[in-house]
């Protein structure tokens, strides 16, 4: 049930008799419920009477008004009697206290606004407008989406009479206005590509509505489709002239001019810069605040509110934790200075030296505090307990802020807390002080890229940074956005006037030298890391060193356990201890990550004499084994019966076991970055064979589109390593993987080369699986190149190879591809038969994803044979699986094929909508060749809708793509353009 309708149910009225709540709807059929029970609203005229009363908002409608509203100027002779009958029936349904007789007419009384869906929609709309005015477009669009979800078809559907007709037109106009406002809010948020499909459908349904055309122009322009945006204007101007004999409204014309001039204000609205923090300067025991404090604006405000709340509370305590160099002390001092006016009786400060071998003793600190508060030495007791009691007594009735910097743990801090109403304590620590009761805990993060660049600029100077902004961004990124590292790098730059920012960026680009470069005077990033590292226990230090070797952005608990060769329970205990000391971060439950500089430091520790080379290599090998074993299990669940699993390299360790495909899929996509990083590392550690098999087992990551580029990059690196090592078996498998990659994005020449080499190498090394896979790819490649004889030969051989291996899913995949050859050569009936054979095999094996691929191919054959409803059903069934399997590439292609079916069925608006959806889904994946195909179909649909300008723009873009790729499809698109623009010439023929 929609959220908005749930709210409607929760807010609806309760009758005086305590009966369940009444709810009414007019945004769709006129309906009434008591609680969740649907009540009868009667005949169409009776529902019309109910609607007329509901829409008057409690005001009385006379009998004459009701008769005219129901029947117009020619009411039946018994109209008054009929109205009374309808009212009596409704009163029995609703109750006598709801529908009342009043002054010769009727009214509905005693209902709150929320009992009617229209009133709720009005409230949501008003709240959305306030959110829009307050600069919260995301909240506004959410509220409007809730409001629009209340509609269930046409307003007042099935209700006769002039009153219903007028109200229906009003409500549907309002619905359109809300839709326009919501789309406008989506554009403000930068969701321009996502709304193009919706706007295309809306403009087709409401061709004369200029506001929708204006929004479509803006969405297309912001999506980089300037030609189409201008074509929308041209189509609109022609349509208005032909239909109404008028010109477009001034706003539409002004937008066209701005697009032609590439007006920069049409770009997406930029996020506002954070307001510069004000640093109040007052004499106190606090250290001086830095004049160039930058960032953490939200944290500063939140901490300020916590400290300000001390007045009237027993005590306010805030504890800041974070990695060394993140700026905890700088932030705390800054916040303390801002809060000084809240503590007129003084501010105390101490460096507790927690990271040192022996931190400050609480008793010594209390003596210093008592003296600062005016207590004579002779009155200061000796014991810690007595000093703490006197400290609290002295603070009683005062408003004092205590800043406890660099705390070791909660035990060191507790005696130093004021404990008095009106006082507050602000604490910094590298460790997490979660056991400090009542404390407001803040995990201080690194700066954002914008904040980091701002800090660097304030130290180095805006003129030098402005000349080399890109290099400056490289510098702060190399610093991991860590404030201490940025300050050191900027300080070195500031005193070296002959250096350019590019010189500094080049020095920091060398990871092996980066930590050595980040030192200036007595400041050094490595030094603060050394202090924290020195406090770790031996097992924690080993975990810190070894886990830093893995290249992924983060690591799961199970993967970390494999690296360390320990149980998950032991590993979790070690990792949580490292989190508590801020040596690693908790990225999410069960996931951990390093700050970039801490990772470099950990590797430095592992590479010196603390870890033998054999131990480091063994740790990475255990990680690769874990990923391969687990990925093989996922592959087996996704492709039951596929024999690839039997042809993978053996692993020493076991992988994870999953209860179902959904859980396995979650693991695969969640671990994608980590396992691909591990495979890339294997190119340097001599384990390319296992890494190549890992790539074969996770091919779904590439097909999904989510990791296509990274997958291809890793495969290329491993191929280079395999060639250098003379490992022909691994080389053949990697070439088969790359052939599949090239095929997915339409790079057919490269794909055929790699597949041909894979077939040769598979034969030479006896790798039957790789040979069959590469032959299957060669067949698909030849099909796309219109070499149908070659395609049939390759695919027939592939089917034979898989059949010999007993690999039924592989055989089915070859048969499905072979069906497309039959289809391309006019053998439609045999194409359908072959595809169904393949689907039957996949279904029998329980392979949902490959079965969906088969249904996708079957839909192509059914479309060709004119069985459009069956083709559409196949595609919808396949799309459900593609979406569930997170296969965005195939989801986009399924939408594209739906557009083709719609085009064949002459459902042109739906064809355009599906093509637009396909463009959005395939954005950034699938390659330019597939985009060209979608644009070609989109152009056909737009042309049939009379939007010739946009159609030509779509075909022009498709032609540019095909000519760049030297694709055969260029000739077809060129012919389409010549039909519309006979004078156009284009190179590349």
Molecular structure report:
With 989 residues, this protein is of the alpha/beta class. It is built from 46 helices and 16 strands. The strands form five sheets. It has a five-stranded parallel β-sheet with strand order 8-9-10-7-11, sandwiched between helices. A three-stranded antiparallel β-sheet has the order 1-2-3, with no helix packed on it. The longest helix has 27 residues, at 162-188. The chain starts with a helix and ends in a 9-residue tail after the last helix. 49% of the residues are buried. Residues 10-18, 270-283 and 983-989 have low confidence and may be disordered.
- Number of helical stretches of at least 4 residues: 46
Spatial ordering of strands, largest sheet = 8-9-10-7-11
What's the alpha carbon Rg, rounded to whole Å?
35 Å
Structural class: alpha/beta
Oligomer: single chain
Estimate what percentage of residues fall within beta strands.
Answer: 5-15%
The termini sit apart by 55 Å
Low-confidence stretches: 10-18, 270-283, 983-989
Rounded mean pLDDT is: 88
Helix content: 55-70%
Largest sheet: 5 strands, parallel
Number of strands: 16
What overall form do the CA principal axes indicate? globular
